Amino acid sequence: xxxxxxxxxxxxxxxxxxxxxxxxxxxxxxxxxxxxxxxxxxxxxxxxxxxxxxxxxxxxxxxxxxxxxxxxxxxxxxxxxxxxxxxxxxxxxxxxxxxxxxxxxxxxxxxxxxxxxxxxxxxx
Length: 124
Fold this sequence. Notes:
Blueprint: E1 5-8, E2 11-14, H1 16-53, H2 74-80, H3 87-92, H4 108-121
Antiparallel strand pairs: 1-2
């Protein structure tokens, strides 16, 4: 069965297969749009979290300098570690070998938002 419009003179009847295919395409399109909006929301929320918790020592943007010289800018951190590899550490608590950095523990949803923000810093 082919998907096509059926000619009925002045009016066109839509073949059920064509209508079904168009619904599938529209649904996928809407899903992609919703996913993009959700990702943008996660990135914005993640940026707020790192601004509140990390920016006093780390540069969190693409060009700024870290206020604490030995704290690497996040744009450099994401080139050394894939952001998704930090998920467990964000939830269980990031502990470093120096005592200037406090231990941070985030909820799973917050960790996902931080990872979305960090992923936005990865050079494409």
